[in-house]
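Severity: low
Component: inverse-folding endpoint
Summary: output formatting inconsistent between runs
Steps to reproduce: submit the following structure tokens with default settings.
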């Protein structure tokens, strides 16, 4: 009979700590495989990702280890799906497999509150991964190991990159957690400006058949570093694009955002990076770059009426782009 250790979680998003625990648990037990048992529902939180996206990210994380698999059975079960119901469904689907359950020691105190816990204990053996500060005095089998200082929350907030680079790339290309990231890095005023720019950019992109995913990513990230301290931005520009050091410092945040996308999130799309880098200057030849420049200069929060430029841009992107650039030069001359 095959023995499988189940590691349940929402994995929103999966990270290096999850992988470390899984490999350590598998190495210390006699199980044939460990399955990441993906929770059917993500937590009730803003910017949560879908079951399909979370499954895709797990697959990216475990692609090189044949002893690690993903179990998506909870996507087929009624909600809410309790652990005992999940195990029952798995036993029916895999009658020749012995399933056991991996939990963290921080879950022990609440274990007795699980639905039909006595039935569940008769079906599976619980293995407890010891966490610092928690004692396993419940008689369950122990797995000892260190804990990595990493969390899904920090990754969603853009404060940690401790997961597979392919997952970071996937997050950006699929627009996952962008709102959470921006709110963690921006003031409310800057965040609202970004949302306004994104709304206008997407409207222009739709009119001119420009890729909406690229437009979303470019617009949402264009001011990501706007409120960073100048010393940090100067250091980034000096390493990433030293030729841009000769530009006025208000340009630096654009290169900072491009750097974050390319170096941290593995985004190499030249149109996206160009649009972000040139959203201040307008020195772009790409349609995406023109859309972002127009949207940034014409969003409703600007201290001037740009509705006519938006109308022109919807009719003819190039004419609108030229008109906005001329107006921007005039505005800066009069106000600086």
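Observed output (run 2 of 3):
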């Amino acid at each position: 009979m095959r023995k499988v250790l189940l590691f349940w979680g929402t994995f929103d998003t999966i990270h290096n700590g999850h992988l470390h625990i899984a490999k350590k648990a598998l190495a210390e037990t006699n199980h044939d495989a460990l399955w990441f048992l993906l929770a059917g529902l993500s937590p009730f939180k803003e910017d949560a990702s879908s079951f399909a996206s979370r499954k895709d990210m797990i697959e990216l994380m475990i692609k090189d280890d044949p002893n690690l698999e993903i179990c998506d059975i909870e996507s087929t079960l009624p909600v809410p799906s309790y652990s005992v119901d999940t195990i029952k469904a798995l036993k029916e689907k895999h009658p020749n497999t012995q399933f056991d359950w991996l939990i963290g020691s921080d879950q022990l105190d609440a274990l007795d509150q699980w639905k039909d816990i006595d039935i569940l204990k008769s079906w599976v053996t619980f293995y407890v991964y010891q966490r610092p500060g928690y004692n396993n005095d419940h008689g369950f089998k122990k797995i000892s190991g260190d804990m990595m200082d990493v969390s899904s929350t920090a990754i969603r907030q853009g404060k940690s990159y401790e997961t597979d680079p392919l997952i970071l790339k996937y997050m950006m290309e699929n627009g996952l957690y962008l709102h959470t990231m921006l709110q963690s890095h921006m003031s409310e005023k800057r965040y609202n400006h970004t949302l306004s720019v994104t709304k206008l950019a997407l409207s222009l992109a739709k009119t001119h058949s420009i890729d909406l995913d690229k437009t979303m990513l470019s617009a949402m990230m264009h001011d990501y570093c706007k409120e960073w301290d100048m010393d940090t931005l100067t250091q980034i520009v000096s390493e990433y694009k030293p030729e841009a050091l000769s530009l006025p410092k208000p340009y630096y945040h654009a290169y900072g955002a491009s750097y974050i996308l390319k170096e941290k999130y593995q985004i190499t799309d030249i149109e996206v990076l160009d649009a972000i880098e040139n959203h201040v200057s307008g020195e772009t030849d790409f349609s995406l770059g023109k859309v972002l420049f127009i949207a940034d200069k014409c969003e409703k929060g600007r201290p001037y009426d740009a509705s006519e430029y938006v109308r022109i841009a919807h009719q003819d992107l190039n004419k609108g782009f030229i008109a906005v650039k001329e107006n921007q030069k005039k505005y800066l001359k009069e106000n600086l």
